[in-house]
Amino acid sequence: MLRRIVGVPQHYSWGDHTSIPSLLGFAPDGNSWAEMWFGTHHVAPAHLDTHDGPLLSDNAGHMDMLVKLLAAGQPLSLQTHPNKEQARRGCAREDAAGIDISAPHRMYRDASDKPEILIALTPFEALCGFKTPDVISTLFAEMQWATELDVLSTHGIAGYLKWCFAQDTPPQLMSCPQWLRDIAQIYPNDPGLRVAPLLHHVVLAPGEAICLPAGNLHAYIKGCGVEVMNSSDNVVRAGFTPKHINVEELLAIVDTSPLATPVITPDASGTYLSPSDAFSVQHIVATGECVFDAVAHHRVIFGPLSEGSGTSPQMFFLAAGETGSLDAHAGDKIFICHQL
């Protein structure tokens, strides 16, 4: 049986005020609705059925998968996430240092890695993964970044990153892309301005996605999407944020390998490439009522997403071994998140 998951909102300053309320069918209240968490993570455990219903964990136990709705009204931090061993060591190190789990300077709030996928529900602008040095060099020449080009050519991407974060003056932006100048309007002196052009700048169409394995350097800029990840809140930041940053830690865990294909689309079965063996995500288009057969793992189902029907989608939980059905009309879109 499908049971509604009541998510936990996160009112971060970068959030959009209207996208999540409008999507879920309730009136905006003046708050910034940055995220809604639909999982069992201790930072924001969701409930079933109603706001005061049982915890999702009472029915599902601990879930290794966390599903969110995310709505960015302005850029999020330039950030990356650890792999399993880095998370285990980092969490143990901060525990030993006596850093409270909720302290704002805590980076490792659990011992899990945090690979994730972001699937666009609206046009979604982001930075994701490194371009090749040749492509970056061509862009730097076009931007008239002679000093930056020399540093990159001499020291490579890793050496260039260290140099960037040691600079205390902003770059010249006269010949830079508009998206970078827009970020500079918010963070005019941020060292991340010299880093951002190394990354792929993408604008996802609805249904397209970015896949973010451990170490991927990224920053969301604007848009609304479904985000699925290992159940973790481990974030290491280095720019574009008033939150705690730790450049040394980011440089220790970031993966500077070029990313060949930043934008992904589902395969013939509707399944997206997953960065994790803990979950997979499938996108289906309904032909009518959707019936979900019993399988051996838990599922979180988001939908139906309809054009002009006046019906708001919801997030549902379907326990392992159970069947369920969802009222839908031909053409409705549904996302099925499988905990593996």
Q: Can you put this structure into words, describing what you see?
A:
It is a single chain. 43% of the residues are buried. The strands form four sheets. Strands 2, 3, 5, 7, 8, 9, 10, 11 and 13 form a nine-stranded antiparallel beta sheet that branches. The chain has a six-stranded antiparallel beta sheet with strand order 4-1-17-16-19-14, with no helix packed on it. The mean pLDDT is 96. It is an alpha+beta fold and 340 residues long. The chain is built from eight helices and 19 strands.
Features:
PMI_typeI_cat, Man6P_Isoase-1, 29% strand, 22% helix, Jelly Rolls, globular, alpha+beta, 19 strands, 2 domains, 9-stranded antiparallel β-sheet, 340 residues, zinc ion binding, 6-stranded antiparallel β-sheet, EC 5.3.1.8
Short description:
The chain is of the alpha+beta class and 340 residues long. Helix content is 22%, strand content 29%.
Percent strand equals 25-35%
Q: CA-to-CA gap between the ends?
A: 19 Å
Number of strands: 19
Q: How many discrete structural domains? A: 2
CATH topology of the largest domain: Jelly Rolls
Radius of gyration, Cα only, in angstroms? 20 Å
Helix count, per DSSP?
8
Stretches where pLDDT is under 50 for at least 5 consecutive residues are: none
Secondary-structure-derived class: alpha+beta
CATH architecture of the largest domain: Sandwich
**What is the molecular shape?**
globular
Protein name: mannose-6-phosphate isomerase
EC number: 5.3.1.8
Family: Belongs to the mannose-6-phosphate isomerase type 1 family.
GO molecular function: mannose-6-phosphate isomerase activity; zinc ion binding
